[in-house]
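Researcher: Hi, I'm a grad student and pretty new to this. My advisor asked me to get structures for two proteins we've been looking at. I'm not sure of the right format, so I'll just paste the first sequence and hope you can take it from there.
Model: That works fine. Here's the first sequence with its C-alpha cells right after it:
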Amino acid sequence: MKVFQKHIRLKPYPRGFHLITDIIVDEFPEIRQIKKGMLQVFIQHSSAGLTINENADPTVRKDFETFVNDLVPEDYRKFIHTYEGSDDMPAHIKSSLFGASIQVPVTNGKMSMGIWQGIYLCEFRDHGGSRNLVLTLFGE
C-alpha cells in the first residue's frame, strides 16, 4: 500500500462555487501512481466547504450560490456571532452543511468521478482569502 499526503494552498477566490478539480490533479501528480485507491480532500477552514457536482454548466454553480444564500441569509437577525461581518456566521453554517472533506475513488491513476462531476471549492465569505487543502491518497 502506498500513502501520499500533500498540503496545497489555493489562491483567494471570490464568494461562490469554484471548480478546483484540475488544480488538485496538477498539484498532486502522485495520483497517477495509484491503480486502486482513495483520495481524500480536506479543507482546513470553518467558513468554506467542498462538494462534488456538475462540472460543465456554470449556471449550476450560480444556482448553488443563490440557493444557499436563500437558505442561510446574512440578514438573519438572531445571529450573535457577527464579529467578522454579516457573512461570517452564515459561512460557518454553510460550511457545516456542505462539509469539510470529500472522498474520491482512484482507478488506474485517475479520479473515478462521473463524466459530469467536478470538485467544488465552496467559498462562503466575501473575502475568504487563500484556502488550505490537505490531500491524502492511499492505495496500490
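Researcher: Oh nice, that was easy. Here's the second one.
Model: And its structure:
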Amino acid sequence: MKALIYAALIAGVLATPVASFAQEASTGPLTRAEVRADLIRVEQAGYRPAAKDVHYPEDIQAAEARVQAQDVTAPGSSGVGGAPDGSSQAGAPTATGMTHSIYFGH
C-alpha cells in the first residue's frame, strides 16, 4: 500500500510542471502575420518607418497611442472578449502611395 501511495505522489509531482507548461503555450511569440498587421496599423496611424526620423521614440509611441485610442473607441470593441465583428480581406492590396514593399531588396 505504501508503494502505491509513493508512486501516486511521485507521478503527481512529475505531472505538475507539464500542466503548468501547457498553460504558457497560449502566450507564445507573435507570428510574422501578426507583426506585419501591427506595422500596417501603426503606418495607418501616421508613423513612417522608412523616413529618417530624428524623433523616433516619440513618433512611434504617439502612433501606438493613436492605434490604442482607435481600438478603445471602435464600435463593437467592448474589451470583454467574444467574437469579433465579421470582416475579411480579399483581393489585391490597395495602393498606399508606395510602389513597393518596405521589405523590397531584402
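Researcher: Is there anything I should tell my advisor about the second?
Model: You could mention this: Helices lie at 2-24, 32-44, 56-73.
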